[in-house]
Amino acid sequence: MKSKSSNTEAIALIDANNFYASCEQSINPNLRNKPVVILSNNDGCIIARSPEARALKIKMGIPYFKVKESLNNLGVAVLSSNYSLYGDMSKRLMNLLKDYSEEIEIYSIDEAFISILRPKDKNLNPWARKVRCLIYQNLGITLTIGIAENKVRAKIANNLAKNIDSSAGIFDLARIYNDNDYLRKISVEKIWGIGKQTSNWLQSKGIKNAKEFRDMDEDEIIKKLGIIGKRLQMELKGNKCLPIEIIKKPKKEIQVSRSFGKPITKLEDLTQALAIYAIKASEKMRSQSLKSSAITIFVRTSHYSNHPYHKSAYKKLINATDNTSTILKTVLALSKEIYTPEYKLSKAGVLMQDLTNCKYLQQSIINYESQEESKKSIRLMKTIDSLNKKFNNEVITWAITKKPQEWAMNRNSLSSGSTTDIRKIPNIMI
Q: Would you tell me how many other CB atoms lie within 10 Å of the CB of residue 131?
């Protein structure tokens, strides 16, 4: 079967390899070409590995305490998750990619779909090599690039680029005259959009790979999987059904939650934790031009507790807000409703709900906020955000956050914040 590569537009899926570990190796040259693993919140489990760590057959998801000694013996660098670093590197990556694309859809922290026009000879490999070189020179991160006619096939091309050594990290599926052998390499559960339940059903019907799904009876797919399944099949055939989504779908809620480094039993510790999460949630809202008109907070004990406890509290706001002071007052009041001293709390969280874009807000008649008050609030929050962004995330903050945080999440092996904190830029001796 010949792919439909006559169109001038192509879709590329850009994937940053081993992103968390690559970010750490990028800012610390001593880690390059060495095995590195990244731990989850509270230094619990291994969630990312460098290629060197993969070669040692270190398993994903394994609890750190089980392999701590063996990792030390193998000389593996173990690091706590540094989400501010990964977020900053992701922004830099996406900004660089924008200059080499017609349109870009940021799919995740380390992935993006890109639309690109093919040159006269249809060969996008020189473009892909240039992009890979640019990102490595600027960020020290290696990319895998899968190119095709549409998003589903671009995902498959990316998978092939990772697993075919001769591809050198680039694979253009649209330029393959007969792609049957390549589609046979992709099991149905690896097709983008196919979940576990659908995969099990397909395999029960004898459909085991992308080629067999592409050639499956269309009516049977529609009957079982509906229009979504039909679109996936159409894309496997080379048709374009899923557009690049430049505008992100608006979020329904923003949640900030963490597990504690050690259990909380005091109300003052709980209110401090919830206050810190509320401040972070407020910052996230403002960065996305959103305001919230409802807040939920929750706490729970460990899943392994002999005395399990889970409770939440909810408050509907009269006026939608992104003002940290207003949100803090609500969260601190709600915290008294969910606190009970007889339980050892292991996790808490804040959810900002009923989110609305600032452009479309309406004030409540019951508690109308004057334009002048609204302007003051906006100016204050902008000033705080601007100063924190320029100097340090905590250069201006609320007093409640400055007390000792004995409950704080364990991050005993946190790397430098040299890309986000001017005070942590390495010194060079000349």
A: 23
